[in-house]
Design brief:
- Helix 1 packs across helix 7 (226-239), helix 4 runs parallel beside helix 5 (156-175) and helix 8 crosses helix 10.
- The protein has helices spanning 13-25, 65-75, 89-94, 96-118, 156-175, 197-206, 226-239, 256-271, 300-306, 314-327, 329-337, 339-348; strands spanning 4-8, 30-35, 55-59, 79-82, 126-132, 179-184, 186-188, 211-214, 220-225, 245-248, 253-255, 282-285.
- 44% of the residues lie in helices and 16% in strands.
- It is built from twelve helices and twelve strands.
- The strands form three sheets. A seven-stranded parallel beta sheet has the order 3-2-1-4-5-6-10, with helices on both faces. A three-stranded mixed beta sheet has the order 7-9-11. A two-stranded parallel sheet has the order 8-12.
- By secondary structure, it is of the alpha/beta class.
- The protein has a domain at 4-188 and 225-251 and 291-313: Rossmann fold, CATH 3.40.50.
- Bound molecules: dTDP-4-keto-6-deoxyglucose.
- DTDP-4-keto-6-deoxyglucose binds next to helix 6 and strand 8.
- DTDP-4-keto-6-deoxyglucose is lined by residues 87-89, 132-134, 185-186, 196-197, 200, 212-214, 219, 221, 256, 288.
């Protein structure tokens, strides 16, 4: 069946994996990727699919309602997969307003355009918001987030995502816009911008730089391979129930210090370095302000209702991820040096 779908933030980490999956799996779909190409959005992430006939890239901001309206008119979208977001918690602590702008105002602008474009006939339409488990706040040493857990965001980043989730739900309740939200745990995998824990430490191990561990490294995250996440989004987009929320997680909890030790172990082996070499780079630094202790997802609803489960064991996913970075040092050097940005700045005039 033919569909025209708008993916926002398709040049980002999760967005590029999602775009690739949809382009390759659904040749009958027309996919329009609207991305502002901020520091974390990178067209190199989509090099392998950029010439596909069902793919179009538009450089632009989700807050630009005139632009988004014109795209709805031109492409007659039946679906929106909304990935565009500022995503780094540390950046949100130093610049909260940037997060309100993109994550809150950007999402509401998009909702408004979708509602206006679809208001005469919601049949077959879906606005899908890709969100985070951080909206639920922080867990103690036990328990899991379920879809019924009350929102309790604690960082400017999670507050902005919680707010955007609430707007998505509000458009459903007030205007009956068909929406779905999924809240996912920490992702890892290829094309992850090296400001986040895993790619940052891979980059630093390669370059023999310190591995900064906040506090004592005892905070816990539930890690999911990004390709498993986008498979879940695909399943939910096609089979989920409008108005519903789905939690997505890896059931794969690690203390930060343990995950970095595992990363060091694998990288010493792959780089042919003596055992214990990379661990010596571990450096405990000042803790993140308001650092959430633990996230863990109960993804039973997704498993029972839609049959999704993670496919990859963590050690294997981490090994695949490290191999990708070792084979793509040019990508890593470009995104850390700014060479890539200046190339696309010239190309797209930003
Ligand atoms: C960058 C960095 C992080 N950390 C700690 C902080 C966290 O406890 C853990 C992971 O940090 P990271 O910034 O990679 O990810 P989270 O803060 O958990 O948030 C991530 O996962 C959720 C679901 C999203 O929704 C966010 O968009 C995504 O960024 O390592 C360090 O100890 N050192 C460092 O240098």
């Amino acid at each position: 069946m033919k569909k025209n779908i708008l993916i926002t933030g398709g040049a980002g980490f999760i967005g590029s994996h999602l775009t690739r999956l949809f382009i390759n799996k659904y040749p009958d779909y027309t996919i329009v990727n609207l991305d502002k190409l901020t520091y974390a959005g990178n067209l190199e992430n989509l090099k392998d699919i950029e010439d596909k006939p069902n793919y179009t890239f538009i450089k632009g901001d989700i807050e630009n309602m005139e632009l988004v309206k014109s795209l709805f008119i031109k492409y007659d979208f039946t679906g929106v997969l909304h990935c565009a977001a500022e995503s780094h918690v540390d950046r949100s602590i130093t610049d909260p307003l940037a997060f309100v702008k993109t994550n809150v105002l950007g999402t509401v602008s998009l909702l408004q355009v979708a509602k206006d474009a679809w208001k005469d006939n919601y049949e077959g339409k879906l606005f899908y918001h890709i969100s985070t488990d951080e909206v639920y706040g922080s867990l103690g040493e036990t328990g899991f987030f379920t879809e019924e857990t009350a929102y309790d965001p604690r960082s400017p980043y999670s507050a902005s995502k919680a707010s955007s989730d609430h707007f998505v739900s509000a458009y459903h309740h007030t205007y009956h816009l068909p929406v779905i939200i999924s809240n996912c745990s920490n992702n890892y995998g290829p094309y992850h911008f090296p400001e986040k824990l895993i790619p940052l430490c891979i980059h630093n191990i390669i370059n023999n730089k310190p591995l900064p561990i906040y506090g004592k490294g005892l905070n816990v995250r539930d890690w999911l391979f990004v390709e498993d996440h986008v498979r879940a989004i695909d399943t939910i987009f096609h089979n989920g129930k409008p108005g519903e929320t789905y939690n997505i997680g890896g059931h794969n909890e690690w203390k930060n210090i343990d995950i970095i030790k595992e990363l060091c172990r694998q990288m010493d082996e792959k780089l042919g370095r003596e055992k214990g070499t990379s661990e010596k780079l571990i450096t405990f630094v000042k803790d993140r302000a308001g650092h959430d202790l633990r996230y863990a997802i109960d993804a039973t609803k997704l498993k029972n209702e839609l049959g999704w489960q993670p496919s990859l064991q963590f050690e294997e996913g981490l090994s695949k991820t490290i191999d990708w970075y070792l084979n793509n040092t040019e990508w890593l050097n470009d995104v850390t040096s700014g060479a890539y940005r200046s190339y696309y700045e010239k190309q797209y005039g930003i």
